Amino acid sequence: MTAVTSSVRRHRLGLLLLPAIFALLMALSITMPSRAFAAEAVSTCNPTATNGCVNGILQDANKQPIANVELKLSGKESATTTTDAQGNWAFSVSADGKYTVTMDESVAKQYGLKAASAQVEIEKNSFDKARQVVRFDKPAPASSDSSASSGSSSANGSAGSSGSSSSSSSSDSATGANGSAAGANIGKRVWQQLFSGIIFGLMLGLMSVGMNLVYGTTGLSSFSHGEQVSLGGLMAYVGTQILHWPLIPSAIFAVLIGALTGWIQNELIWAPLRRKRVGTMQQMIVTIGLSMALQYTFQFFFGGEIMGITKSVPASFNLGPVTTDMPTLTSAGIAIVVIIGVSFFLYRTRLGRATRAVSDNAALAAASGINVEQVVRIVWILSCGMAALSGVLLGIYLNGISWNTGATLLLLMFAAVTLGGLGTANGALVGSLIIGIVADMSSLIIPNDMRYASALAILIIVLLIRPQGIFGKQQRVG
Q: Which residues, if any, are the signal sequence (predicted)?
């Protein structure tokens, strides 16, 4: 009787919290600033399907920031901005084409820069994938017909370094130089893609471990788990950009909201369905509906743009052949620490051993005195909190989060947990690393937009050879 009364109280508390969360989202949507899509100077720019970015970090030859310098953007759209104390600057543009960023020539000479202007070219179909980082360490092209644009570089480039370059006098010599440079840099590209694959795999593992714990304890494959990832990133955006909190408190806020929604889901949806002995197939259909409802709720409140969590462009540096930045390394370190902590929880704590017992045989665990419902509740809270944390780290790593980020990664999560072995936390981590590395390394050979397809192809091949996955156990059928 006491257990039933406690369950009813938790159910009522969950019903009371839902309107409060909805009201909070409504208030945030009202207070969110509208975003213009004409060329404008912004403190930080995140590319979306409707706007591209031209930005950089203005530094002198000694890598020291140059503040309070006026920069002008010209081309199909024009705007003016001033570098901040760290030398950061950014423009948001809505039209594709060539753009030129210029500064006063006297400023360029004063700080030893090799050019007072730089050019970039932005294509409309790449607005949501890349930003153009302008550099002033190379001389401007001799003419507008030059095939080498001195201003364009990858998003990992840094502005204001002391490097130099020269334009070729003929298209043949330019082609030869580009060919030899590509051959010399192929090894660096391989290491860079391997590094990116490991980072992405760690973040994918953070999402997948929680999903696999839910499957192990309940037998439910949750299609709404990706939305928990999106929720974490969006809540971090609310903390940093709307409430103007520092990044760490915003991340903690996002994780707490994610864990709270995990508890609410279990109390209002999954626990009642389990008590009514609804099958896992029917529950899985419910997760699909919940996924769609959450996706369009996010889109309603936050729009279809990519929301930037951080407020500045991080400075990049080299680790051997790899170019990275401190937020990326910090995110990877946090993911590793959390995954190690979950492993310690599962294998070295009483509750963790109870969780593994429920995963192996829930009926036997209940017969031995384990409170199965309490274990499942904790697993839902833990898995949704981890998913929210992965959304925060992914938003920092990818320079933004959107309403459907988690949905685009859902198939990769399923591929990771299936490849590693359903119901095994360590299998989910190994499967995630394999999927992440294969996906990023395959872009060296196939188009970047097809990299996820290569990871899914690896999944199919492995399952044909070992259907239970890498760490899964063979089960007798019949």
A: 1-38
